[in-house]
Design a protein that fits this description.
mainly alpha, Growth Hormone, Chain: A, 6 helices, elongated
């Protein structure tokens, strides 16, 4: 976990997506947009990273269920009442990016906890643990670019959101595994929705 924390900390200091470098906007406000890339580059980076993660992680929830001894069709992984809910196609462009940023911040928190639990429960699954770590780092990178975009294009920062994140710290291992499956499925569903939107070109009528 210490290693993961170090990677995340480094990621916030210097995040590289594709060939472009992005830096997070200072949390106190939009005072440092000069360190961000231009808006077109930011949008391209966000889109490419989301689609890359959608491709790489499309089987992540099935893999998670398999590693933890159950299948998704048993009903343990349904994320319906879990975390933020938003339809990215039925809101304005500004609200879409704002909601995406909010949701990715939420997913970053809960997936970091999932990765920690899985490190305890499935310590021998090195490849799977590395994939979870890469997913968390990718979300941090997207969130950083969305921070730049919100400030640079809309002069807007992310307000604190207190979504319920009932970490099952004191529950049995099985409850931790079920909670983690809900989190991973929530991520899979959201990244799939986000990957279907073209952020660089204007929305077509069927995307609105």
């Amino acid at each position: 976990m210490k290693r993961l924390a170090g990677i995340v900390q480094l990621l916030f200091l210097q995040i590289w997506i594709l060939k472009g470098r992005t830096m997070p906007v200072n949390s106190t406000g939009c005072k440092h947009t000069s360190i961000c890339n231009d808006i077109t580059t930011i949008l391209t980076q966000i889109q490419n990273k989301i689609r890359e993660m959608h491709t790489v992680d499309q089987n992540l929830s099935d893999e998670y269920a398999l590693k933890n001894g159950f299948t998704r069709d048993q009903g343990y992984c349904n994320p319906k009442s879990f975390g933020p809910h938003v339809n990215l196609k039925n809101i304005s462009e500004e609200e879409r990016f704002f909601e995406m940023h909010k949701t990715f911040l939420f997913l970053s928190d809960v997936l970091t906890q999932v990765a920690e639990y899985q490190g305890q429960l499935n310590a021998n699954q090195k490849s799977f643990l590395k994939q979870l770590s890469n997913t968390v780092n990718g979300i941090k990178a997207i969130s950083s670019n969305l921070s730049c975009l919100l400030c640079q294009k809309y002069n807007r920062t992310q307000e604190n959101e207190n979504y319920e994140k009932p970490f099952p710290t004191h529950q049995k291992d099985f409850q931790k595994k079920v909670w983690g499956c809900k989190v991973v499925t929530k991520y899979k569903d959201f990244i799939s929705e986000a990957a279907g939107i073209d952020f660089v070109k204007p929305l077509t009528p069927d995307q609105k």
